[in-house]
Amino acid sequence: MATEGTPGLALAVVCAMFLLPVLTMAQLQVGFYLRTCPNAETLVRQAVATAFAKDAGVAAGLIRLHFHDCFVRGCDASVLLSTNPGGGKTERDAIPNNPSLRGFDVIDAAKASLEQSCPRTVSCADILAFAARDSITLTGNVFYPVPAGRRDGSISQEQDALDNLPPPTFTAQQLIDRFKNKTLTAEEMVLLSGAHTVGRSFCASFVNRIWNGNTPIVRPSVDAGLSPSYAALLRSLCPSTTTQTTLITTAMDPGSPNVLDNNYYKLLPRNMGLFFSDNQLRVDGNLNALVNRFAANETMWKERFAAAMVKMGRIEVQTGRCGQVRLKCSVVNPSSSAELGSAVDEEGVVATS
């Protein structure tokens, strides 16, 4: 039974409140590490730039990695855990993430540099947020300040990813509802969907739109949102025998797969939305109005996209004494190190008492 002498239990209860489906606005702040690790964002930016120079596609992977982290248990770097302390499979093992998620090595490289420069200070969750921003800068020439102060979680479960990540088969209403559960509006859902203008997708995410067993699907058997010529191109890339383990990919935006622009919205009216869920933005009247608006004004879309990324980065965050600052992003700290970083106050200052 709990007593007044069990502060750990009280802290656990308080921290658990942050995992409710609400947007935690407090305690994150721009420049959080200015005093404790002034070069934190620079070191992350260098790690991302080094990886991007070798493979431009990693930028899209890092943007997606941040999204998949925030939508499951909040922005707590749970997606980075390779082992589950409680046993069972992790988020990384879930079908929406495996084998498609990438960028883990970039986060590990950034973390290694930070541990050398500022040990036990910068959370993996913040590294993810910085890396996603830097990827957007590299691909779209968009920079925005990232509020920081997130803490790392210690739970990662496969089922949570299955229950929270929106699949490419969602209807418009299902998309709206899923984003609403994360305190994001329908407009912010359309804004963030624009990230599909960069990166690649595995065939398994859309194969049911182009094949019915061994038979090619033609309009309007599934939906009218895939042009016949585009479907034929996709069938030439993706065999009818495609499964989750088929490692064939295609660019989501064939024209500029490594450039963050508003071309995604221009492709939708041409029936070139790769996923069923992409086409839902076109067939829903209210969402289609947003699609047309963003297609007509790239500058406006980029500004609002950046704001939506910042808001997404605040979902269900752990801050203060909740969570931990992992020493290695893929595993939780050993019990002897569980409180590492817990003496960092809400302004990023390490207590000396």
Short description:
This protein has 353 residues and is an all-alpha fold. The chain contains 13 helices and four strands. 41% of the residues lie in helices and 3% in strands.
What labels describe this entry?
mainly alpha; 13 helices; single chain; globular; disordered C terminus; two-stranded antiparallel sheet; disordered N terminus; 353 residues
Report the average pLDDT across residues.
89
Shape: globular
Major beta sheet summary: 2 strands, antiparallel
Please state roughly what percent of the residues sit in beta strands, choosing from under 5%, 5-15%, 15-25%, 25-35%, 35-45% or over 45%: under 5%
Structural class call reads: mainly alpha
Could you tell me the number of beta strands?
A: 4
Give the proportion of residues in helices.
40-55%
How do the helices and strands follow one another from N- to C-terminus? HHHHHHHHEEEHEHHHH
Uncertain runs with pLDDT below 50, 5 residues or more? 1-14, 20-26, 349-353
